[in-house]
């Protein structure tokens, strides 16, 4: 990071136009942009794109590798859901796949909101355990 900061300062000295802005502001902006660019490269390397943290100026296109990874993860999630007991699987499908409200699920299965919430929480815990995801 320090080395990139020094390179950014050298770059700002070389490109600075006299009487345009304050040099300190120009240099600070150049360093900030350099760090953001470095972070973008690292994020793309790990295939994570948190757009709320870093403002990406270009669209991120997914590679074949990204699609294969997503497909494999989806297969694992589907397998974990299919391992659930039928009543928990139905609750998860109704909430996340069919996008039904809690009221609809209450009337469909004739169970209380509290029980739906507990079933959902238990099912998600089991899915995370199957996928080796720590809470």
Automatic annotation (TrEMBL):
The keyword DNA-binding applies. Keywords: DNA-binding, Sigma factor, Transcription, Transcription regulation. One of its GO terms (molecular function) is sigma factor activity. InterPro entries: RNA_pol_sigma-70_dom (IPR014284), RNA_pol_sigma70_r4 (IPR007630), RNA_pol_sigma_r2 (IPR013325), RNA_pol_sigma_r3/r4-like (IPR013324). Gene3D superfamilies: 1.20.140.160. It holds the Pfam family Sigma70_r4. One of its GO terms (biological process) is DNA-templated transcription initiation. This is RNA polymerase sigma factor, sigma-70 family. It comes from Clostridium fallax.
């Amino acid at each position: 990071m320090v080395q990139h900061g020094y390179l950014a300062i050298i770059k700002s000295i070389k490109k600075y136009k006299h009487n345009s802005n304050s040099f300190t502001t120009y240099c600070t902006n150049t360093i900030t942009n350099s760090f953001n660019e470095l972070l973008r490269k690292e994020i793309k390397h790990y295939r994570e794109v948190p757009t709320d943290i870093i403002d990406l100026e270009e669209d991120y296109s997914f590679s074949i590798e990204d699609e294969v990874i997503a497909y494999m993860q989806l297969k694992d999630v589907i397998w974990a859901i299919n391992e659930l007991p039928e009543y928990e699987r139905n609750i998860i499908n109704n909430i996340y796949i069919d996008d039904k409200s809690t009221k609809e699920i209450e009337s469909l299965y004739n169970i209380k909101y509290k029980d739906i919430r507990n079933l959902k929480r238990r099912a998600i815990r089991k899915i995370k355990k199957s996928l080796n995801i720590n809470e």
